[in-house]
């Protein structure tokens, strides 16, 4: 598309109605490529018309980064659960994207002969949810029905490499309700993942910025830009004469209603602070406003970072 627009005095993507129409045509082209090897995308704007041929091969090239991320997510899931691809008996294709030939080819390569494409990928998730709702309504749901953490949740901190990363505290797919280690639970295997440290001398204010992302292992550090900030908790009025490296402990607790409670403890002073965050109800405009406020706050509070 960029090449086709060279020399044109306008970009139709700058007009919201044209951009939406183009998005719809591209979406239809994506769906069509699941059935045919080649299709055409048409863009019309202010009396001009542009036709772009799109093949499966070109579409796969343009979206290869997304397919790579999908394959990496599968590998992370297998690794976190302690399985190899050869130990999986059958792969069920759920969701419209599994109709795409590039996705099915990737799955067949990883799980040869074990990819089940017989179910209806667009409807199977909704059908399963409807069946479960009916079982719950009639009281016939099995006692083993459980809720899982929909995402991972962690804290932004400066790592040993001097860069900011989001460190997981609660992982995706943990059984709900769940809680990370508390300061007194030093024998827990996840105890170390709640420990953070002040990053500068004389730091009298410590913010713990809480982020949401997808992560199945505590070793999966995340780039800030790939995560979504959902809130902060601040410990303030700390002694100003302390050297950097003071321990700050974070404990997360997530219940089945997706309410996340975050406790922060400054170990040496005993100061604590907590915040409750209700997940899944943040609108995009609020996210944008929070991002602007966070950027302004970061400029004002450059000396109040925490360190892993």
What brief labels describe this structure?
Substrate Binding Domain Of DNAk, Chain A, domain 1, 6-stranded antiparallel β-sheet, 4-stranded antiparallel β-sheet, 26% strand, globular
Give a short summary of the structure.
The protein has 308 residues and is of the alpha+beta class.
Task: Give an overview in words.
With 308 residues, the chain is α+β, with helices and mostly antiparallel strands. The protein has 3 domains: 51 residues, no CATH class; 58 residues, no CATH class; 156 residues, Substrate Binding Domain Of DNAk, Chain A, domain 1 (Sandwich), CATH 2.60.34. The strands form 4 sheets. Strands 7, 8, 11, 12, 13 and 14 form a 6-stranded antiparallel β-sheet that branches.
| Major pleated sheet | 6 strands, antiparallel
Please identify the top-level CATH class of the largest domain: Mainly Beta
Task: Report how far the terminal alpha carbons are from each other.
Answer: 44 Å
Low-pLDDT runs of 5+ residues are: 281-305
**Radius of gyration, whole Å:** 24 Å
- Our count of helices gives 6
* Record field, number of beta strands: 14
Instruction: Supply the number of structural domains.
Output: 3
User: Per CATH, which architecture of the largest domain?
Assistant: Sandwich
What's the order of the H and E elements? HEEHHEHEHEEEEEEEEEHE
CATH topology type of the largest domain: Substrate Binding Domain Of DNAk, Chain A, domain 1
| Strand-residue proportion | 25-35%
């Amino acid at each position: 598309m960029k090449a086709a627009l060279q020399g044109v005095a306008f970009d139709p993507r700058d007009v919201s109605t044209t951009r939406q129409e183009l998005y719809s045509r591209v979406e239809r082209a994506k769906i069509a490529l699941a059935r045919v090897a080649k299709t055409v995308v048409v863009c019309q704007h202010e009396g001009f018309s542009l036709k772009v041929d799109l093949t499966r091969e070109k579409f796969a090239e343009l979206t290869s980064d997304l397919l790579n991320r999908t394959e990496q997510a599968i590998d992370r899931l297998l690794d976190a659960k302690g399985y190899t691809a050869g130990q999986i008996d059958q792969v069920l294709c759920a969701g419209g994207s599994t109709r795409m030939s590039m996705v099915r080819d990737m799955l067949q390569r990883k799980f040869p002969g074990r990819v089940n494409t017989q179910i209806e990928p667009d409807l199977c998730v909704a059908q399963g949810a409807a069946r479960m709702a009916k079982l719950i309504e009639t009281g016939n749901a099995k006692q083993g029905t459980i809720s899982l953490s929909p995402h991972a949740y962690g804290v932004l901190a400066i790592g040993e490499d001097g860069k900011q990363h989001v460190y997981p505290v609660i992982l995706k797919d943990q059984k709900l309700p769940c809680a990370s280690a508390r300061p007194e639970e030093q024998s827990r295997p996840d105890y170390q993942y709640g420990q953070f440290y002040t990053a500068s001398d004389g730091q009298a204010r410590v913010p713990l910025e809480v982020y949401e992302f997808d992560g199945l292992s505590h070793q999966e550090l995340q780039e800030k830009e790939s995560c979504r900030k959902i809130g902060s908790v601040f410990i303030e009025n700390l002694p100003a004469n302390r050297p950097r490296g003071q321990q700050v402990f974070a404990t997360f607790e997530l219940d089945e209603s997706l309410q996340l409670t975050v406790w922060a403890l400054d170990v040496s002073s005993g100061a604590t602070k907590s915040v409750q965050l209700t997940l899944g109800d943040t609108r995009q405009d609020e996210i944008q406003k929070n991002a602007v406020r966070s950027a302004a706050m970061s400029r004002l509070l450059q000396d109040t970072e925490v360190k892993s």
